[in-house]
Structure formats: C-alpha cells, structure tokens
Amino acid sequence: MGTEITYIDAIREAQSHALRDDPRVFIYGQDVGAFGGAFKATKNLAKEFPGRVLDSPISEDAMVGLAVGAAIEGLRPIIEMQFADFSTVGFNQIVNQAATLFWRTNVPCPITVRLPFGGTSGGGPFHSQCIETIYAHYPGLIVLTPATVEDAYSMLLEGVALDDPVIFCEHKFLYRHLKAEKLPSEALPIGKARIAREGRDLTIVTYSAMVHEALEAATELSGEGWEIEIVDLRSVKPLDTDTVMASVSRTGKLLCVGEAWPWGGVTAEIIARVASEGYGLLDAPPHRLNAKDTPVPYHPNLWTAHRPTARAVAVAARKLLRT
Amino acid sequence: MPHIPIIMPQLGESIAEANIINFLVKARDNVEADQDIIEVETDKATMTVASPCKGKIEKFTAQLNESYAVGATLGQIEATKEEAARLGLDVAPAKIPETEQLSKSDSNRRSGRVQPTVRGLPVPANAAGASYLSPRLKARMDELGLHAADLAGVAGSGAAGRVTVEDFEKYIASLDKHKMSEASSMRVAVADAMRRSWTRPLATVGLPVALDAVLAHRKNSNPKPGPALYALRALAIALAENSAVAGRLVGNKIIHPSAIDVGFAVEAEDGVLVPVLRGADKKSLSELVVRYNELVELARQRKLPADATGGSIATVTNYGTFGLIWATPIPLPEQTLVLGMGAGRRAPNWDEVKKQFVPVMEANLTLSFDHRVLDGGAAGRLLSRIADLMSRPEKL
Amino acid sequence: MLQPVLDDNPAVQTATARDTTLAAFRFMLLARLLDDKFAALYRAGKIHGGVFLARGQEALSASIGISLKKTDVFAPLIRDTAGRLAFGETVLDAVRTYLGSPLGPMRGRDGNVHRGKPQEGYLPMISHLGAMISVVNGVLFARRFKKISGTVGAACIGDGATSTGAFHEALNQAAVEKLPLVLIVADNQYAYSTPTSFQFACENLADKAAGYGVESHSVDGTELSACLETVGKAVARARAGNGPQLVVANLLRLCGHGEHDDASYIDPQVKNSPLGRDCLKVAEVFLLQNKITDAAQIAAWRSEAIREIEEAVAQVQREPAPDPFTENWSAISSGHLSETHEENGN
Questions:
Q1: Cβ A72–C109 below 8 Å, yes or no?
Q2: Are C33 and C51 spatial neighbours (Cβ–Cβ below 8 Å)?
Q3: What are phi and psi of C23, to 5 degrees?
Q4: What is the pTM of this model?
Q5: CB C114 within 8 A of CB C331
Q6: Taking CB atoms and an 8 Å cutoff, what residues of chain B touch A305?
Q7: Which residues pair with C181 in a beta bridge?
Q8: Which residues of C touch A75 (CB under 8 A)?
Q9: Is pLDDT at C343 greater than 70 in this prediction?
Q10: B108–A283: do the CB atoms touch at under 8 Å?
Q11: Is residue B128 part of a domain?
Q12: What is the pLDDT of residue B15?
C-alpha cells in the first residue's frame, strides 16, 4: 500500500478539501454518512465534517430535486449516486430541473452529481453502464470523465467550484486499480484535453478507463514500428475540439475509442466534428470502437468481448494504419 | 495427487486486492470443502477465503500482512483425483478468448520501402485504392496546384496501392534533389487544357490523302494559302453538311454548333495558340487566305486580339511542319474534333488504270475525336469527305 | 397594487383576520379577471402555446399565498394565479410571461405558468408534476443548514400528481428530514380528462399522510374562510416544527385543462353539486351577507383590477419580441466552457 494514492482516494481527498474550504458544500447520497459510501468514497468524512455528509432515502429523483433547491439557496451540494446506472431514476430532475434552471431563470445551479460508472468484471447490465452521452446531450450540463488519479482530484475540485451542474463520471474499475504517487498541485483546467501519449501515425481520442487500454495498445504497436498519439478528452462536455483537431493534423488518421455504446456516443460526436471541421486533415476515413450494442454482459468471457480492450484497440488501429 | 490452487476471490465491485490478516489453518492441516482458511481485509470489510475442495493444505505461498491481487494464487491444496473430479477442478479453466488472433502477417512492419498491399481497408468502400485521393491528400495537392495526373508517377504505400499523404510528401521532398526549371504560364495552361481534355475517351482515325492537286493549285495562287488552310476549308464544308459530329455531349443531349468557326494551331513560344476563322463554311478559300495569313503572323507575335480566339468548334493542326508523318493530336477540352495533317512525301500509289505504281505526293490526315459523340464510322466518313474535297481544290 | 397583509404578531391576528379575508378576496378577483384576459388573448391568437386557467381554485390558492411570509418559499403549480399574486407576483410579470416578453422573469425562454423568481423564494415550475416538491425541500434544507429558522415551504399539486414517483419520494424525504413543508393538494376531481376514480384507490387523499408519518388537513376548497383557516393552521404547525403538513382541498376545476380543452368529460352531476360551486361567487355572497364589505366596494375593486390588467397588457404588447440574433445561446453560466457550433448559428 505505502504512500500511493488510488483514484478513489483522490476523490475522497477532493471532497474533503471541498468540505474544508467551502462551508456551502455538503454531500448527500445513500450510505454516504457513517458507512462512508458503497465504494468508501466518503469514508470518515461524516465524522470529520459533522452535519455536512448526509444519508438520503433511496430516492434519486428527490435527491437531485433537493440539491437544486439547496443550490438556489446558495449551497453547493455534491450528490453521490450509488451507481451511474441508477441515476436514470433521477434523470428528470437532472436534465429538466437542474440543467434548465440557469437558462430559464438566470439563476445558476452549482450542483455536482457523482456517478460511479463503467464496467468491472461481473458487474452485469445494471452496475456497469457508461451513460455520459445522454447527459452530454442535454444543454446546461458539464460532463467530466477523468482518466487519471490526478484528474480525479483536480477535476472534482474544479467541478464543485463551477456554478453549473456537473456530472462527474468516476470509473469504478479505476477506483482501486489506478494509483499515483501524489496529488497534483496544478492541473489542466476543465475543458482542455490532454495528450496522454505523443505519436505520429494515428490519433486515438478516448476518455476514462479506455485511455489505459489505448496506452497498452500503443505500447504493443510501438513494438511494430507505429507510434500512436493518444488524446485523453478529460471532459466530454465541453469537448476540446481544438486539441483533437491539432492531433489529427499531425497524424492524418483518427480512431475514437469509447466504452459506451455506439449509437450517437462521444465517439460519434468527435467524428462528426472532425469530419466537418477537419475534413482536409484526414488521410483515411475516421473510425470508432465502442462496446457492442447490447446491455453489458455478466460472464467475464462475454464482458471482455463486449467492451474495447487493449487488444481490440490495437486491432482497430492496425486496420487504419494499413490504409 | 492433484494440486489445487487457492485463489484470492473477487471481493466486491472495484476491489483490486486484499491484505492477508490471518491464516485460519496451517500447512499439512486437513480441510473440508468450503471451509474458511484465510482471513483477508479490504478497504471496505474483512472477509474470508474458502477452501475450493476437501484435502490437505500443501502450503501457503501468501504471506501475512501482504497484499495480493484478486485472482492471485495464495497456496496449494492436495486433493484426491475423485475429489478434484467431483468438483470439476481437474479441468483447466477456459481461457478468455482473445478478441482477434494475432498472426505474423498482421504485424506489417513499417519499413522504409514502399510495399503496396491489397489488404486493409478499401478506402472508401468500393473505391479502387490506387486512384483514391484522401481529403487530406486533396487538400495538400490543392495547396500546391496539383492534379491527380501529377501523381501518376508516385508510388503508393497505402491500401491497394493508393498514394498516402506521406508518400506524397516524400515525393515532393525528393524533387528538390533534381534540376528544376520554372514552367511558364503558357506551359501550365496547356498542361491544364490537355489534362481536362484527356478526361474523355479519345480515339484517332487516319487516311492518306493525295496532295498533288492542292500543291498545283497553291503554286498558281497569290497570295498562297498554307496547306493546312485547304484542310481547314474542306473540314468546314464537311461540318456544314453534318454539324452533329462536331457537337458537344452534355448528359444525354448533343449540343450542335451554331456556327462553323474553325481554329488552327500555330506554334508560339513554349506552347500553341489557336486563332479562329469565323464562318469558314461561308467563305471561299480565296476569301479566307488573307485573314488566315494575318492571324498566323499575329499569333507568332503573340498579339492575337480577343475576338480572334475562342469559340471554335474544331481545330486543324499541321504537324507535318515538324516533319511528322503521323500524330494523334488531342482535341481542345471544349471541342470534339481535331484534324491533323502530316508531312507530304512522295509515295508509290497503285494506279488501277495504268496497272502500275505511280508517284503521288501523300500526306496522312488524322482525326482525333471524343468517342462519346461519334464512332469510327462517322469519323471515317468525315475524313473521306475531307479527302474528297481536297482532291478538287478549285471548288474550295 | 395589492400587498400581502398577513402579520405574524399574534396580538393583532384577530383584528386583521377581516383584513386578511378582504385581501384574499381581492386577489381572487384579480386572478379571475386576469385569467379571463388570458383566455381572451388566447382566443384572439395573441398567445403562443398553452393557456392554463385557475377558475374554481382561487380561494384555495389565494389562501396559500397570503398565509406565507415573503421570506418563505412557494412552489405554485398550474392553477395558482391567485396564490402567485398573493405571494407578491405582479400582473405585469404574469402578462409578460404569457406574451413571451424578454423583459419578463422568463425572458421568453419559458412561458405561461412556468414562471417564477427563484432567488425571491418563488419557484418556477417545470412541467413534470411532483418535481417541484423536492426542490422546496432543498430550499428548506438549505435554510436549516445555514441556521436560518422559521421558514415554511409551500408546494401545490393536483390530484393527478399524487400518483407520481416524484410526489412520493419528495413527501417521504420531507417527512424523514422533518422539514417545514406544507404540501397542498388541490383535488379538483380531474387530471386533464382522468377522474380521480382512475387516479387512486384510497378513499381520501388525506389518508396518504398516515403512510408517510405526517399530519393531514382536509378542507372544502370552495369556501374562502375555511381555506384561510385550514391553510393558516397548516402553515403555523409547520413553522412550529411539527414536520410536513398535507392539506387536501376538495373543489372542482371550472375550466378545461387548458384553454384548448372544452372539459366536456366533466360529470354534470359533480358540476351541479356543492363541489361545483364557484368559490368567487361564494366568497362574494359571504362578504356581502356578513357586511364585511359592500357591492359598491367590490365593483370598485373589479374596475381597478380590470384597469390594472388592461394597462399591463397594453404595455407588454408594445414591448419588443426576443431577438434570436442577440440572444445568448449558452445554457451554462460558465461562459469559458460554452461550446460554439457555428453550423447551428451559435
């Protein structure tokens, strides 16, 4: 264990610092209080900040509604959804109440909704979903998808400080599998993508856990003489088109990778933008790799075939590299 | 005796590892199936690891207070063959299938040499790779003012032999090593015209024509018409009789010419100019000759007025002046026909009446045409008519 | 312009009960005339979108608005013209919203009954019924969090909305958190065309309160004095820390669901029963019979209300329409994070 910080430690630290530095912040969700949260994302925080970390009934709709009311009164609620998959029960309040408040009334809505998202082996259809797309689709929301321990920390802090509703997609697989030496003292701001790996022959644009699959694929391809550039979007809304475009102008080839389903997802959005604004940059058709168009399966054999893995990313990349 | 591994189980969503906090049994102990044998601790809770079967603990490889990942081997149990079979533990667990089998040929190492391949993506689907220009390549070519024709000599390393933007940049860079001279604007203009003309299917037919009558007529004329003018006038008369052959095909319509304006090629510095005789069907040879000679002079000095060029429906070119006996000229991009005349020379012709070869001053007439508008038959008939008209120069 | 008159000094309570009743009546009258105006504008093609009137529900609604303090929080719903005015909304703001004026509180971005001023405790509804209740909970929660005491939150819903999950979750949440929520159900017998027999199976909506562990009150929604008393009591009990109060008022909707609906499905028997009485007429009769005021005064109030409404309409109709080319087409307040899509013109 040592002094390493995991992705979930970073999320806990960020919440702790937010609670400490801003008296308007509070956390509300199921089992977040004394129990510390289903994933222990709020472990010990209720004790350290009495009255600031509160348990809610199983009512995703009312949780978000309460958050909006509190935000109107000037507080900064952090709502922890136990799983992203359950947030759809509170979907109406997120997209029709929180996301429209500023546009309709000019009163900002500074709530943060944390979604434990993404697949882990054995999670099955209702504990694995990546649904950043449906939130990004609605105007009025900021959607964040950190891929690193450092970004999990800095982007959650920055997100809580924003005056707009933030959907914070934290990847469950990365929670304890990803470790860093220390928390960052400075960071790229929300809205800027990061070049996770410099390359020359192909650009992979991706986010969250898929960044790590892409990095592994890139290492494999490097052994074959190809250098892949990887863009970590960090936030899917706003989406840093400039960085993506600059990378494609360097490589001429684009592969978008996402763990979500294919229809109209983040990968489709990137390709639409690049095809429209960067058509003359493409030396080959832009491609994407997503999960299969079915609910997320349960058995590990099916699960590893359902989602993009490093191997699948390498195969997809090779197809494009050979064109 | 089969050795069954003790595996760290999956202990909850997102849990990656656990800490060994207690061994509940020791090596050489007998255990029952499902008996708790190790205590472990995660971030969330304390849990136990159960024995996979009945047997004897052979050894623990895990250490107290150390962390092990989910799926790691923590020790071994000795069990009877029957026990192992009963629990299905004698069959190795099925390997998680790879998404795609890697084959040696798939790795396609990047080498310095260009290796055209027919594998890989047809980019885009159904397009023949070798001629495919990607948007990026097109943009780069537009920047440099180049066309697909300019790529003809460039080797392509992309799918199905297409020229990738990398191949292209290498090619452009390699040109720097060669001696280069500036192409004049005339040269570039002609290059563009010929490139555009060539996008059509062109064919050529030819006919030898006896020039004796023409030469004799010319000798007695003043001013003297150039030999090409005889051909021009004959062409004009023939086209007036049947203008469809000089029409333009646009979609499924043939646009007929509205006037028989015929141009003729004059070599100017680094290129060709084409002055035009308007309504050449309506003026006799003697009426055309002065204007013709004027235009030739103006063209050579590159002082042709605007109304003297453009709008012609066919062109005549006398490539015989270069000593050539045969050529397949290319019609102007906006025209369907070009009539060429080669150098005259004495050739033996069989005289059926005298039953012997007689010397004749012969030249080849070649007609290149857009094969979408007319076929060999019509082209042939046009040439025959021209040859026929030229055999009676006094009627031109 | 009318001002809410309620004073929270108990010593002057009884002395001003008469004033409160008169004030509430004036808001009812103004609301009825304003609704008539909206209906007329709709039939004249001056309003784009739906028009939703509150005919028959003015007594209940006015009672709510007038029982609240300015520092309370109020989430009215579709048939609360009177309550909104009593809580402090101006006729001008209501008209501006219906006519889509960029000078109104919703600036043309939302319309008709979807209006409010969140930072003044007046919450603008969204169309999803039941969704506003938990938002009221949130405001009350925040007041407590900030150690501000004495706030009451009122949320209005209809009989139909009691079937929604949002209603259930929010009432449960308020009960668990012991929030000073007053939830007023205007049971007007119909949710659009659906009668209450298809909406719930319990005998009386007020019975639901026991399931949530909260106090309930029932009232005849056609009677102004009964509404004032019951709502006033519920507000007082909430303010005193007795947790959420469920008020169920029985009345009949005296108009269509919207002005596009002729309400021909309403059972004539119900229309002709005491439930179908017009609360405005009932109140007028009550005030005159008890000599609390006279006909001349009521006529004067009526003319004043009509004049105020007509002036507002005339003013707003001269205001410019929203300009899509100068509109700020960003849905987030963090300007630096806004995405531009030139192909869509923003």
A1: no
A2: no
A3: -60, -45
A4: 0.80
A5: no
A6: 97, 99
A7: C153
A8: 142, 145-146
A9: yes
A10: no
A11: no
A12: 75
